[in-house]
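The freezer alarm interrupted the setup, so I double-checked each line after restarting. Inputs confirmed:
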Amino acid sequence: MNLGGDFYLFANRVGLTFNVYEKNVDDLIYETPLADATGFQKTFTNDAALTNRGLEISLTFRPAKPGKDFNWNVYMNGSAIKQIVRRLPGEALVWFSDGRSVVSRVGGGQNNYLHISQGVFGESGDVPVDPVTGLALRNGYSTSYFQAGDMYFKDVDGNYVIDDNDLQVGGSFEPIFTGGFGGTVMYKNFNLTISGAMLFDRTLRNNALSQRLQNYQDPLALRDADGDGTPDIPATYVDISDVDYYTLDRTNARYPNPFLVNTGTQSLRDAQTLFEEDGSYIKFNTAILGYNFNKDWLDRNFKLRNARLYFTIKNPFLISRYSGPNPETVNSLGRDYLGNYPNTRAYTIGANIEF
Amino acid sequence: MMRLYYTLILLFAVLAVTSCKKFLDVAPADRTGSSSFWQTREDVESAVINCYGFVFEKFNDFNSPVIPAVGDMRCGGIGGVVGAGQLGLGFKTISNNDLSNTTDLNVPERYNLVDIDDWAPYFESIANCNITLSEIEKMEALTDDEKNRYEAEVKFVRAFTYFYICRLYGDVPFYTEPYDKTPRPRTSFVTIFNTLIAELDAVKDDLPWTPSNTSDLGVRANRASIYTLIAHLNMWVAGFDKANQNKYWQDAAQKCLAVKNSGEFELLPLEETKRIFKGKTKESIFEFELNRNYGNTSRYVNLGQWMTHSPIVNYGANSDLFFSRELMERIYPPDKPDKRRDIWFYLPYVNNQTFMFLKQINVADPAGDWIFEDNLMIFRYADVLLLGAEAFANLNNNTEAISMLNMVRERAGANLFAAGAENLSDAIFWERQKELIGEGHRWYDFVRTGRVLDPNQALTYLTQEEFDRGAWTWPIDAKARINNPEIVLNLYWVR
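Predicted 3D structure, all chains:
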């Protein structure tokens, strides 16, 4: 189903194009894991289906009446999309993938699947104790009991053991709205061009931060820096003095104590809501300010055909509440990694001269 | 212009026709694709041999010492380096039947004792057998006779796999069709065993008593392997389906008697222990071959790895583990003559690490590492005789029972059965313990006869309540429930 329209109003000074659609995808091929007693590990099935509902909109606008010396136009485009899972293989209602870190639900989309962080234990006395067994909250059926400086994960099933049964549905890593914007202003020989991108309503997992902290827990371990699932290089020790982590004189910190070694509590695990952050941003990609010399004047004095001076800034600024370096350079599951390169800001001054 | 079009159309048509030629169907030179396999008799031969490989892989050193650990060590009486952090701790945990203590069970990690709860490899074997059976059925290159022979072999391997895992885990999901993806619930092993008995009964005479090629003796299923497996299936299920005990006993007795009457098998002199356990002898019924020359050596399929020292292997004067004096005295009363005790043990009652168990001692290199080349014995003629004796004794046919029992005793240089002085059923049970020690039978004999409930007989005994709750089973890895909500784990072991 598709509905669209193009409008041009006020002598083409306002242009609007939109497209509303609903697209059904049936017979989606899924790799379906099998029960181990079948003797096989997985099979392929095509019984999944989803629906994409979206709105695409593009707007151009000239605030001032086009003239000889002054021209101004602005554009904006965007796409809002909502993905709804209609059917999962074998009529399943929920589907876990990527090592149970992603959950898909019929009637919903895909979300992170993680532990809920409820704050750092200020002192060991705060750790809940099972009144039946007398054992403190622990990680798995092990002797890794939580203590001061550990994260207080929500014990959803109330058995005083933090394990996979306590995982909960978290934020969605699929952005609801993505778009671009830009504009040009021309005044006499000056021109200014700006372009940018924006993205709203997306949850990121700031694993760059969790890994930065984790590195201090096991200084000799090899790390998976590029996020491909295999450890490859020794850890790097990025300064964490800017992080509000637990110490003896800062017991109400936001992040757990990274120096709790020899503990299996995994308080700094990647998959927890502590590292979920809003990934919305508005970003200016480039700004170019140029000056075109008068052609007659050039021809008369220098026998030049054309000359232009310009000044460019790449990545001038980014408006975002994300605490990591860059909400753009994350993977398709919305995860930031310590190995990601930040975008660089570049300034260019240049001249074009044509003889 | 029109002419040009016609020419082009014609040209296209010619190309389209010629491209149907076979030169496009190139077979890969380095792989076997499913379309190029299952063509010749040799393909079937190698696929059938491969069926044995799947289940053997689970038993050998890349996994865990399933057979000695469950079959022998679980009965208790294990001493040696079994303290905290020592390499016998996992075995000690098994011998205490403390299987949910995965922390201790996992010491040392390299024995992978915690992975015994993973049943997936056995089901790979079963899935492979199911596919092989369906493909053999479709083969045109085989005569009906050849098809029957291969099918009997594969059905034996499949039934053996189910036999093994049902004794280990209790009820299991039952898959018999190729490419079956259904998540199935666990089927009662009584049902499974009855199905298997009927299935094997239909094919039991399709194989010869002994293979035409003597190098296949014992290592490929023969008629005796199938008869013995049917007997074992019957004897196990008789211990649980007590209402039909007589039927099972009769079937088992007949099958064992048929093996004996075939005249193809004999008990070798005990002095030739090394030859018996190297395998491929007249005593072999079914075994997996271990031979360094063929690249399949294994350390963990028998107890020699832990119960020998110099000069058998280069390991000082102490074994890692030993059978306690209490266990040894129960099995081999010190005042009775028995060549098995004298030949198979060094210092049998010493109760310390100078003890050695010398049943499987075909060591590839006594000056070097532990690489035992004794075949992994599954069924041996002595086992068949004693199983038959047990079945006949249960049916009160004492003459045949005593005759079979005495064949084994005579070979062992032990006193023949003295009616009146001994209880026949007890005598046969303990004869199996004497004869089959270290071959992975003892625990299962304790369980199926119910003797595991008697503290005077079993060192690691269970109460009736524990038995009924499934303490005789092995825990099942919780991953069996992934993608299969029908699976209920062995509840005795679930916290």
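Quick read of the result. The beta strands of chain B are 78-80, 284-288, 321-323, 345-346, 356-357, 376-380.
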